């Protein structure tokens, strides 16, 4: 018999630990490996032999861990060098795997992690080392190719949709309402900002406008649209992705605003504050509020999607099965087999194909004016945010368990 | 028979509509009034006859309204002028009440609303007008006197505690962790910031330091404390109230920072960014993140306290009962009758006593160093955040119902 190891990499999500638990439970049932090890802080930690035995942890602790947000095994932003020119790191890693009698390595992550899986699997093949390397997808950005969506995205979309409704209500209570701007993450793609279309009251979207990085940001049109809507409704609700750019490809968040606040400071703080400033400067109204959701959208387990948690669990379990079946150098992907009665199947994609590619929000799901999304987007998002998770509580707050602290 | 009217005022909370429903249900049972009217946008809207009949709304809609955050009847920031010198507004209001055959007026709000109740009840008495005026407390700030706590606060505290754990986990995943600063509301009092002491992992508080407006902010000591803790743990988690001030009484948020960001702007955006800047300027570390919770802490029904919702409902129901009993010019207050097996009773306080007073966070619940809170604070907060609400869903997001849109 032998062992396997799993580790996490890149930015955290609400459901990343669920994938680890899916794999653990898979082994509990099939027992293909004696032990499932956890590498703390990804490849970086494994190189330092920061390794724990997850198979020795009690079922109770694992049940809390499953519903704990953020990378409970720790994470890293470590990129392996090119194996052609730098074998040393690869050798060290293989030596450590050999010490622990490891026959399969699983990496939960995004683009960079799939690149790592790709490099390691090739290296192992070249050196005739019998270790399987399987990637498990995760990213709130939903920008991985060859998968219908990515675990972690559904929970982020649910948090964005929920807070969009709630902040819309909060910013609509007076007779003199102003303009509200909600900023989401999404440096390169608009999936997160677009998911705000889920937010509806009486079946009407709360957002007036949604701005995505996939559309060149035209300041003049923006001001015209906002002014008109404000004159019509005495309020405007705007959602914007942090990654919008102008026609020169410059991030709007990097343009200096000429507005100064009441203490004489130039204002900054992301796109939402830039938009706030130009709305005020152009005399539309002074009543403008801006809110950056920041890291809340990737760690809010208290508002996670149970569907997302389930799928994250399943991709972990499938990764395990594929490794046992002898696959390597691949990532588990999700196929949507039905949308109306939502269902998915799992498959494998070559990590070579995935690494360094980006899945953009489809142009055909953006309206002609470039300031909102189409019904297709709503239909795509809706099943991904289904159901609330059942959390354990302690001291009247969620009880979480991590292994990296 | 006759009618009564209820309206909402001031900043919204997650549970303010629950008080309206408590009162409605009270009348459904006792039937002391033919109709319960709702004044839209508080006194300001009532003066414009923006009045709806809540008794005609279906039970189903009311059940959604009960679990809807923010002021579902709309709100205002309207202060009645002094009745001694300006009777006109009072007369207009009494005339409208007469038109609608109103015998009791209920105002859900904070300090200013209690001042309104006080003025109106006195005016009615003076003019021999038989209308009862009862105040129903609400404020996330928890700063009303003569009540153990205020409906709305528990839900805000629960959101702060929950997001403190979750952002702590998110900001602790790398081997090189930095400093995280969470900014809460609380311009004058520290109740909200202090409630972050609820956030614990393995029964240990996640926050290293909590800074309240009740303690003079000493920048030198702050930097010394943070530097020491960072050297010890390689990470520091800080919670700060927006209202902290220096020894001259100046808000820290109004002090100009000399730091410029990578684009050459002076930075601003609340206390958390000021603290971030001085940590960087003083060379402690460059890895500092700051997050302002903003209005999320007062509208996050998806993370509300069910205990808070229940108490908000009960103060509405009690207000009704007190008006029927002939009381006027008073506010319903909450007494904590037991903490271990948490229980409360409801009573009345003269609004004259409450208006224009502030309940500060107790000095004796702050540690000697002035940078954290005592166990007494934790014990006080804990029962107020109990249980999650059971929300209705539509399109996989919470289904909310308001009457002001």
UniProtKB/TrEMBL annotation, chains A, B:
According to its UniProt record, what is one Pfam family this protein matches?
A: PFK
Which residues of this protein are annotated with the site description Important for catalytic activity and substrate specificity? 112
Question: Where, in this chain's numbering, is substrate bound?
Answer: 139-141, 185-187, 242
Q: Which cofactor names does the annotation list?
A: Mg(2+)
* Purpose of the protein: Catalyzes the phosphorylation of D-fructose 6-phosphate, the first committing step of glycolysis. Uses inorganic phosphate (PPi) as phosphoryl donor instead of ATP like common ATP-dependent phosphofructokinases (ATP-PFKs), which renders the reaction reversible, and can thus function both in glycolysis and gluconeogenesis. Consistently, PPi-PFK can replace the enzymes of both the forward (ATP-PFK) and reverse (fructose-bisphosphatase (FBPase)) reactions.
What PANTHER family does the database record attribute to this sequence? Answer: ATP-DEPENDENT 6-PHOSPHOFRUCTOKINASE 1
Q: Which family does it belong to?
A: Belongs to the phosphofructokinase type A (PFKA) family. PPi-dependent PFK group II subfamily. Clade 'B2' sub-subfamily.
Q: Can you name this protein?
A: Pyrophosphate--fructose 6-phosphate 1-phosphotransferase
* Organism encoding this protein: Clostridium neonatale
Report which gene this protein is encoded by: pfp
């Amino acid at each position: 018999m032998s062992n396997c190891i799993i580790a996490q990499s890149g930015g955290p999500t609400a459901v990343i630990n669920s994938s680890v638990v899916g794999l653990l439970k898979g082994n509990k049932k099939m027992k293909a490996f004696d032990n499932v090890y956890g590498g703390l802080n990804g490849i970086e930690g494994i190189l330092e032999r920061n390794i724990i035995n997850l198979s020795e942890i009690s079922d109770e602790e694992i049940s809390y861990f499953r519903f704990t947000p953020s990378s409970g095994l720790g994470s890293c932003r470590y990129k392996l060098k090119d194996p052609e020119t730098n074998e040393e790191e690869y050798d060290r890693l293989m030596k450590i795997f050999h010490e622990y009698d490891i026959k399969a390595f699983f990496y939960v992550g995004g683009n960079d992690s799939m690149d790592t899986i790709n490099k390691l699997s090739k290296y192992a093949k070249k050196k005739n080392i019998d270790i399987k390397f399987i990637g498990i997808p995760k990213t709130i950005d939903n920008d991985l190719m060859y998968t219908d969506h990515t675990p972690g995205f559904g929970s982020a979309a649910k948090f964005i949709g929920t807070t969009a409704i709630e902040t819309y209500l909060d910013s609509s209570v007076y007779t003199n309402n102003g303009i509200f701007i909600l900023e989401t993450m999404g440096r390169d793609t608009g999936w997160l900002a677009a998911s705000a279309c889920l937010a509806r009251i009486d079946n009407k979207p709360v957002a007036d406008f949604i701005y995505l990085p996939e559309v060149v940001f035209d300041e003049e049109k923006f001001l015209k649209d906002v002014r008109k809507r404000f004159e019509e409704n005495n309020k405007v609700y705007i959602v914007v992705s942090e990654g919008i750019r102008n026609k020169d490809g410059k991030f709007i968040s990097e343009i200096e605003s000429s507005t100064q606040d009441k203490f004489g400071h130039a204002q900054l703080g992301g796109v939402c504050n830039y938009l706030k400033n130009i709305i005020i400067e152009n005399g539309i109204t002074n009543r403008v509020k801006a809110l950056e959701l920041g890291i809340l959208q990737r760690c809010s387990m208290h508002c996670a999607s149970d569907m997302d948690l389930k799928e994250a669990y399943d991709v972990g379990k499938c990764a395990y099965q594929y490794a046992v079946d002898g696959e390597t150098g691949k990532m588990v992907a999700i196929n949507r087999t039905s949308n109306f009665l939502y269902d998915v199947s799992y498959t494998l994609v070559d990590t070579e194909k995935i690494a360094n590619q980006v899945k953009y929000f489809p142009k055909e799901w953006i309206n002609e004016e470039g300031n909102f999304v189409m019904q297709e987007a709503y239909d795509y998002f809706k099943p991904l945010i289904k159901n609330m998770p059942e959390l354990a509580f302690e001291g009247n707050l969620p009880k979480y368990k991590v292994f990296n602290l």
